[in-house]
Specification:
By secondary structure, this protein is α/β, with parallel strands linked by helices. It is built from 11 helices and 22 strands. The protein has helices spanning 16-19, 23-44, 46-54, 76-85, 122-129, 149-161, 173-183, 192-204, 227-237, 346-354, 388-403, and strands at 74-75, 103-106, 110-113, 137-140, 164-166, 187-190, 217-220, 240-247, 251-255, 263-264, 269-274, 288-294, 304-310, 312-313, 325-326, 331-332, 337-339, 342-344, 359-369, 372-381, 408-412, 424-426. Helix 5 crosses helix 6 (149-161) and helix 8 packs parallel to helix 9. The N and C termini lie far apart (65 Å). The structure holds zinc ion. Zinc ion binds at residues 257, 259, 261, 264, 317, 319, 321.
């Protein structure tokens, strides 16, 4: 890899040609990769062949991303079941076990065949987009034991960029602080809460968070990252923190660039956002389940259902990367309600409400009147406001913007909504 100015973290790409390719070309590229992995998986993975046969499919039936809809979705629970029946990998492995370099065991339990040559691109793309550069000394505080994330995915990806890894793993906070100081480490990989622990420990040890600790970039995953926590860590440590999303089964499915405008889908994955009931693709702007396909020949996961909800956007990102983006992870599929044909999740309601500091407690009620769904935000205001009608209109507009379903707003007296209620109360009866 050519040496580049390590102080310039704001521009550049890991794989410029791939990352800036026009949409149509990207789709062609992915379709071609898809045909390749379908052929490989059909020939080498018993589990995938069975899945295809159960749907009456042959590899030639899958030519494009749209054709993926024909293939049944594999959920985590299916994986656990199939691995029990046919240990250790449930027939999902794409090469003989003797050819593997490592085997990982994740909670579930789910066994994952490790790399021969590590080829995944996504995490490294994410790190690069978040400002990691060749020559950076980086502590990797994810757990190196059993699970594939720290060693297989993060460590390999850091090396792919040309970073110098210190495999610290979790815990030993005081020692982590000393390591950061001794090696003037520029990068942190880990959970946001562990970075917080480290920063608190450093202060306790009497260190200055910007001079004694010289972190510049953080790559965080495996936990929700509240904006308030991100901002406070970034300011106190004088660094940039970007988050990433993925699973142990399929790898990286999204990463933030410096523009923080959602999570770019890596160029070595196909990510569909689908109706969780039918498995049909929903296209940009609609909430659905994230279903992923990897091109990993050792462990080809075709249509893996993550159980997470998101919305995809194809609008251009100012960073120059042309890949579609997951707007944010909205929550789990099992908390979702369907209103007028569209999925509504508590996370979306929360997003609407978070735009209005005047709102105290609220509950979304879904009812049905003359065979039409109605969604009402019942809202308690924190105090008297001058123009309630105007606020009502603004909230209703935010509901349309965020949820894409029309909703009514009803202001109710303070203290009406009890503690601990469901955020979305579905009162429809279907008799
Ligand atoms: Zn971007």
């Amino acid at each position: 890899m050519p040496k580049q100015d390590p102080t310039d973290r704001s521009t550049g790409f890991l794989k410029k040609n791939l990352e800036t390719v026009p949409h149509k070309k990207r789709v062609q590229y992915l379709n071609q990769k898809l045909r390749g992995i379908i052929q490989h998986a059909y020939k080498n993975s018993i589990a995938f062949k069975n899945k295809m046969e159960s749907a009456g499919l042959k590899p030639k039936d899958i030519q494009t991303i749209k054709d993926l809809e024909k293939i049944p979705i594999t959920k985590k629970a299916d994986l656990v079941e199939l691995q029990k029946k046919n240990p250790p990998f449930g027939g999902f492995e794409g090469v003989p076990i003797s050819e593997l370099k490592r085997i990982y065991v994740s909670p579930g339990p789910i066994c994952e065949p490790g790399e021969m040559e590590y080829s995944e691109l996504g995490w490294a793309q994410g790190m690069y987009a978040g400002g990691f550069r060749p020559g950076d000394v980086v502590i990797n505080t994810f757990s190196y034991h059993m699970v594939p994330f720290a060693l297989h995915m993060v460590d390999n990806s850091l090396q792919r960029i040309g970073c110098v890894v210190i495999p610290t793993g979790v815990g030993n906070t005081e020692q982590q602080v000393n390591i950061l100081k001794t090696f003037k480490a520029a990068g942190f990989c880990g959970t946001p809460s562990f970075l917080l622990n480290i920063s608190e420990k450093a202060v306790e040890m009497g260190f200055d968070l910007k001079n004694d600790i010289q972190l510049k970039v953080g790559f965080v995953a495996a936990e929700m990252l509240p904006e308030s926590l991100r901002t406070s860590l970034e300011e106190r440590l004088g660094m940039v923190i970007r988050q990433t999303y993925g699973t142990a089964d399929v790898g990286c499915l999204g990463y933030e660039c410096l523009k923080k405008s959602g999570m770019h889908i890596p160029d070595d994955k196909i990510v569909e956002v689908v109706d969780p009931e039918t498995g049909k693709q929903l296209g940009p702007g609609k909430t659905g389940e994230i279903v992923a396909t990897s091109f990993n020949k050792i462990y080809p996961m075709i249509r893996f259902g993550t159980g997470d909800l998101s919305i995809v956007t194809e609008t251009p990102c100012p960073c120059g990367r042309s890949s579609p983006r997951l707007i944010k992870i909205l929550g789990r599929v099992d908390q979702v309600t369907k209103v007028r044909g569209l999925f509504v999740h508590p996370g979306q309601a929360e997003e609407v409400v978070s735009r209005f500091p005047q709102i105290g407690k609220y509950q979304v009620v879904v009812t049905r009147k003359e065979h039409k769904d109605e969604m009402t935000f019942r809202i308690e205001l924190r105090g008297e406001i001058p123009q309630p009608e105007k606020l009502k209109e603004e909230i209703e507009k935010a509901i349309r913007d965020v949820i894409k379903v029309r909703g009514n707003v009803e202001f109710i007296p303070l203290g009406t909504i009890p503690e601990g209620i469901r955020k979305i109360d579905d009162q429809r009866s279907w008799e």
